[in-house]
Design goal:
Layout: H1 4-10, E1 16-19, H2 24-39, E2 44-47, H3 49-52, H4 68-71, H5 82-91, E3 93-96, E4 113-117, H6 123-126, H7 129-132, H8 137-140, H9 143-151, E5 157-162, H10 180-193, E6 198-203, H11 206-216, E7 222-226, H12 229-232, H13 235-240, E8 246-248, H14 253-261, E9 267-270, E10 286-289
Parallel strand pairs: 1-2, 1-4, 3-4, 5-6, 5-8, 6-7, 8-9, 9-10
Helix pairs in contact: 2-14
Amino acid sequence: MKTLLGQIADLFRPSVVLMVDGGVCSQMNQYLMGAYLMQQGRRVEFELRFFHRDGRDADGVHVRNFDLLRLFPDLPFHEVSPLKWWVYKHLFPYYGFSEEDRAKRWWEVQAPRLVRGYFFLPKACYDLFAATFRPQPERVLDGPNLALYRSIAERDTVAVHVRRGDLAVARMGYGQPVGTDYYARAIAHFCDAHPHTHFYFFSDDPAYVREVLLPSLPHPVSHTIVENGDARGYMDLLLISRGLRIGYTASDEFGRLLATGLSFVKVVVYARDDENTDILQAVRGRLIAL
């Protein structure tokens, strides 16, 4: 923490301050905004008040930790000081929480400015994905997850991300949650094409996968349920990136951003009635709506 004099001096170094909140893929999404602005030569700092206040999901159940630097420890990152945040909040705000705000050209903002909310990201941001987020599994994963990372086969494997929690019900900005019928169709699609497929399930509610989703399938499938919980959920992203040739997206930011960033994924399945598929414009693999 800077001294008060240091914080006052920092006010004379104008910057664009970006809000960071939510789960790890929301954090990555927001950091991509900063990476794009930094590429344009702007000084960027980040606001982490959501995490300092014990941030949780919309239901107040699942903890949302600031995992971005745990997952990518070498990212250039400067947290805004409390004084600068207070001044910018009252004098230089730029908000984007409503649907119409998502059309704002946030990338044109100039310092000083506090940018808070959720915005549409142009494809140029996602083009920075690979250069910005460089996986370091040997450095990031704990022992059990590193062992799993090394053991995941690269052939005939599918990652299934099942987001529950606060998205188990309809939410503005996300639409209706997908049901077991969606997963049944998607799993059947890949079983037909690859009879020996092994499915890795990643979820914030593994009990739902075990007790509801899997029993609802018309036929048993070869599978592994990965259980990392809130504390280590960010490790799921690295596990999914380990040679999985096909990715699913559920109705959430994790699935969409993951599908966009993993350049090797050949096929991405998403729900036909998903209302927020703009991010999928950057997917390099084949898209299938079921």
